[in-house]
Write a structure and sequence with these properties.
The active site is at 157 (charge relay system), 207 (charge relay system), 530 (charge relay system). This protein is an alpha+beta fold. It has 17 helices and 48 strands. The radius of gyration is 30 Å and the shape is globular. The chain binds 2-acetamido-2-deoxy-beta-D-glucopyranose (NAG) (7 copies).
Length: 922
């Protein structure tokens, strides 16, 4: 089907936009969320939908305590935009939002494994030694017997495999997974009809089961995994089918259901690029937080996109956005193999690659040299005296040249099997499809070194491999000396386009071992902010146990102020001397025990000084001493790296993470008072006056940030993160006019067309009929946003006067327009590329007549006034002609019956109109 809508970019013009495309949430054609006016609280949704005269069907009744409305699906998606606008005008309706689709959470599956090989229990002496817990002080709660008992955590995700022995083994009251539901069913893909049922089982995805284990895995497992709060009850709200997306109407329903089911905390490791807290899903989550239930949401996995790439619903006001740091170990679930050397049998672990036909392979090892520090091992063709390698497994050290090249060199001498040994910690799954090779695998560095030493000593080493898919797996933990404790490179950066501080703080999300569905090997190591968020949810439960409060703001403030900021580390480079910016790590890595026991409380979790146009230099916050004795505080300012959004003053697109430049020019703060003593029970307002860093090029939009340090005489050490932008967001170019152009629907490279190309469109309204495809092509509008825009409008500008519509064209913002193409305008757009193939349909449901047109694109500047033309960045496409195929009744009958004859022709009248227009003047 030719999808006419705001599809995510298929191919982007720059590599940055390429990275963005997959995450730009798509609009679902004809589907809308309607929010009723508050006084219509008890209205009957069926009656409401009934009054729409059969034009729409009910997608989902959304009548909840905190949100009253419905989502509806217009049967005629062609005219939906117009119909929705009419619905929005009804007195009973407060607002109408399009349904957007969010993808299944993206995360990296590093390895999976069952529990066939019993491991040494890692809970030495009964104490918690799980590394993500040691990093966040969660182990201290567990060692003290605090497990989140009595707290209910709603998990909005892919469901939970509650039959997993480490997740309680059952579903319902009395079970670990004690409540929840399936809102969608297995076959749901985001576009089809959800088939809800009562069973939130996760058999086919795994994401939600991994998340659940991070919160509450029971210690009865062979890998020493334990949830942060294994005494809580979990609610599983399944919003994804086995594959595909979820609409925000389902997410809004799931949040409200989790809220009404009495969840004390709601966690969701779901998101999509946004940067706007006004997004409807984010707005609903904000409302739940306002009503007293903390909502933690993963910050997003688009770190590579650089600064200003916040994700919804994490970017909502009062929603807690959780960033990721890497684990201090890299666990791996390795397949179990054995080898024989000097008459002894030893075991080793490996990770199968592609190809991976290792079943029953038992061969001696051979290696080209014994140099265990050779970076270019196996990169050169093997010497002439190399034996026939078909009877060996070739052992090669990882490094320098590609895996494929190394395998090719071995295959040139007859090899069929290659094992790589790693040159860093852990293992990875190697892909090296080379003709002649049937198995590749990787072993950890120490295994490879031991084998080389044995070969060098003249021993024969015979390796017995196994099918990596079915071999028993065991857990190997490698120290993560490279990135352990630093912000994960994938963690998305804030702030929002309106300078809300995002994310709030970080927990370990990179290299996390947890439970996985039994159908998918039971355990897995995954990476993503999806893995960070549930740990934060568990920590909220622990703090609720200790402090007795469930107030979202109190707990967020405690976690932010006690978190530990870390230095900035660029991937593959040693850490800089600068603290990582607040837009990357928020308050830093949470320290849960300190948060639970802090007696000094702050009124805020962060401060924003906004940008230069809206500079709010004076920000107040309150420090309260809730302890039993008086404390003397001294406050200071510790700057974090100032991140330049753009690489140069003329650039309009933010640089990718690899090119983010940090400066040590910090903001200076005047803190008043900077030292004072508070008696027990007293509080004080502290006033902070910021001076943005001087001498930085405002055109590069420097985002400065740092921490107000608050050191108490009781040895408390708190910090309050702040940020601001030393430039004008309103002045930033939002529309990349060079990459906003007209292309062809079939050109996946988005090449620009020359002026005056004629597009032959399918008969009006039949663009989805594939039988027209070979004879038609649609104009494709490519809009590239350099920065986010709250509103994009597109005008269809007639360059002819031969149609009534053209003669009656209105003038809006100085351009003559027939109106906007269907689906426009679009609101709250992230930066990146959007593509739109136009079948001639306008937002009012009519079709633009055949003729010569151009499209005028207007993107509202950040903080711009939508009623003023000058507040938009504008671009126009080249002129292009459209005409429609026209079929008569007989032709239509033939087409529908599948008989290929009577092809429709372009109507003569259209040609005539074009001849007229050639002399027309506009
Ligand atoms: C376990 O933790 C407790 C509390 O921190 C500590 O007193 C005890 O020594 C620890 N036991 C072991 C074996 O480490
Ligand atoms: C091993 O390889 C390293 C790195 O290429 C090189 O510096 C060293 O000289 C080599 N050692 C031997 C014994 O060839
Ligand atoms: C920055 O200022 C604008 C304009 O007043 C406002 O809309 C926005 O909310 C402000 N941002 C923050 C974080 O206060
Ligand atoms: C900040 O606090 C001071 C007193 O400490 C007060 O005069 C001022 O009005 C406050 N400013 C804001 C923005 O609340
Ligand atoms: C194509 O559109 C027609 C109406 O124009 C509709 O009846 C039909 O179901 C659509 N087909 C698909 C595959 O969407
Ligand atoms: C469209 O063209 C392709 C390639 O020329 C051909 O294989 C296909 O059958 C055509 N489809 C229709 C519906 O005519
Ligand atoms: C496109 O067509 C219009 C109207 O016929 C004409 O005025 C214009 O010069 C043409 N442009 C180009 C580049 O050929």
């Amino acid at each position: 089907m030719v999808r006419l809508g705001l599809a995510a970019a298929l191919l982007a013009v720059t590599s940055v936009a390429n990275a963005l495309k997959a995450n730009t949430p798509e609009v679902l054609p004809g589907a809308y969320i309607v929010e009723y006016e508050n006084d219509q609280a008890s209205r009957d949704t069926n009656a409401f939908v009934g009054k729409l005269g059969g034009k729409a069907s009910l997608r989902k009744d959304l009548r909840f305590k905190l949100f009253k409305g419905a989502s509806i699906q217009f049967k005629d998606t062609k005219n939906a935009e117009q119909a929705a606008a009419k619905v929005a005008e009804l007195p009973t309706v407060k607002r109408v939002y399009p349904v957007r689709r969010y993808p299944v959470p993206q995360h990296t599956v590093l390895s999976t494994g069952d529990a066939a090989v019993e491991m040494v229990k890692r809970q030495a002496g009964g104490n918690d030694t799980f590394e993500p817990h040691l990093m966040t002080q969660v182990n201290k709660f567990r060692d003290a017997g605090i497990t989140g008992k009595g707290i209910k955590i709603g998990v909005i995700d892919t469901g939970i495999d509650y039959t997993h022995p480490a997740l309680g083994g059952c579903f319902g009251p009395g079970c670990l997974v004690s409540y929840g539901t399936d809102l969608v069913g297995d076959a749901f893909n985001g576009a089809n009809t959800p088939r809800p049922d009562n069973d939130p089982m996760d058999m086919c995805n795994g994401h939600g089961t991994h998340v659940a284990g991070i919160i509450a895995a029971q210690a009865n497992n062979p890998y020493g995994i334990v949830g942060a709060a294994d005494g809580v009850e979990l609610g599983a709200f399944r919003v994804f089918g086995c594959s595909g997306d979820v609409g925000n109407d389902i997410l809004i329903a799931a949040y409200n259901m989790a809220y009404e089911a009495g969840s004390d905390i709601i966690t969701a490791s779901i998101g999509g690029a946004s940067g706007w807290s006004e997004d409807p899903w984010a707005a609903v989550v904000s409302r739940i937080v306002e009503n007293g239930v903390p909502c933690v949401v993963s910050a997003g996995n688009d770190g590579s996109a650089g600064v200003f790439y916040a994700s919804t619903a994490a970017n909502g006001k009062r929603v807690t956005a959780v960033a990721s740091v890497d684990n201090i170990i890299t666990p791996a679930l390795l397949a179990n193999g054995s080898y024989e050397v000097s008459g002894k049998t030893e075991f080793f672990g490996f990770t199968g690659g592609d190809p991976g036909s290792w079943s029953g392979v038992s061969l001696p090892l051979w290696t080209v040299n014994y140099n265990i520090t050779d970076n270019e091992h196996g990169c050169q063709p093997y010497p002439a005296d190399t034996p026939d390698l078909s009877g060996y497994i070739v052992l090669i050290r990882r490094g320098t040249c590609t895996f494929v090249q190394k395998v090719e060199n071995a295959v040139a001498k007859g090899a069929r099997y290659v094992i790589f040994y790693n040159n860093v910690g852990g293992t990875i799954s190697v892909s090296a499809r080379v003709d002649g090779v049937t198995g590749v695998a990787m072993v950890p560095a120490d295994t490879g070194v031991a084998w080389v030493k044995a070969l060098e000593a003249g021993s024969k080493v015979v390796v017995n491999m196994a099918n990596p898919a079915t071999a028993p797996k065991f857990l190997a933990n490698f120290e993560n000396t490279a990135s352990g404790g630093f912000a994960s490179s994938f963690t998305s950066w804030g702030p929002t386009f309106e300078v809300e501080a995002k994310p709030q703080f970080a927990t370990p999300g990179g290299y996390i071992l947890s439970t996985y569905p039994r159908a998918l090997n039971s355990y897995a190591v995954l990476s993503g902010t999806s893995m960070a968020c549930p740990l934060a949810a568990g920590v909220y439960a622990l703090i609720m146990n200790v402090r007795g409060t469930k107030d979202p703001k109190t707990i967020e403030n405690l976690l932010s102020s006690t978190a530990k900021p870390n230095l900035y580390r660029k991937d593959g480079v040693s850490p800089s001397g600068l603290l990582a910016p607040v837009p990357q790590q928020g308050g830093g890595l949470i320290q849960a025990w300190d948060a639970a026991h802090a007696t000094t409380l702050l009124s805020h979790s962060s401060l924003s000084f906004n940008d230069t146009d809206h500079f709010s230099p004076v920000q107040n916050f309150t420090i309260s001493n809730t302890g039993k004795s008086s404390v003397t505080y001294s406050l200071g300012n510790v700057g974090a790296g100032t991140a330049f959004t753009f690489g140069s003053p003329g650039a309009i697109t933010p640089v990718t993470l690899a090119n983010v430049e940090l400066s040590k020019d910090f903001a200076s703060l005047s803190i008043n008072p900077a030292t004072f003593t508070l008696a027990a029970g007293q509080r004080k307002i502290v006033s902070v006056t910021a001076t943005a860093p001087k001498g930085l090029d405002a055109k590069r939009l420097p985002v400065y940030s740092g921490y107000i340090s608050i050191n108490g005489s009781d040895s408390s050490a708190l910090s309050l993160p702040y940020l601001g932008v030393a430039g004008s967001l309103h002045s930033a170019t939002v529309l990349n006019t060079a990459d906003t152009l007209l292309s062809r629907s079939r050109d996946s490279n988005n090449g620009a067309i020359l002026p005056n190309v004629t597009f032959t469109l399918p008969p009006a309204g039949q663009a989805n009929d594939t039988s027209f495809r070979n004879r038609t092509e649609l104009p494709k509008l490519v809009v590239t946003l350099a920065m986010g825009s709250a509103l994009i409008r597109v005008d269809v500008v007639p360059l002819t006067n031969c149609s009534v519509a053209a003669r009656n064209a209105q003038t809006v913002f100085g351009v003559r327009t027939l109106g906007q193409p269907e689906d426009f305008p679009v609101y709250y757009n992230p930066r990146g590329t959007l593509e739109y193939s136009w079948d001639g349909r306008l937002a009012d449901g009519k079709f633009a007549p055949a003729g010569l047109y151009k499209l005028a694109v207007k993107a509202l500047k950040i903080f711009g006034d939508e009623n003023k033309a000058e507040e938009y960045d504008s671009a126009e496409t080249v002129p292009f002609r459209i005409k429609y195929l026209k079929e008569d009744k007989l032709q239509r009958r033939y087409r529908l019956s599948g008989v290929a004859q009577g092809q429709p022709a372009v109507e003569k009248r259209q040609e005539q109109c074009e001849d007229d227009e050639r002399s027309a003047k506009f």
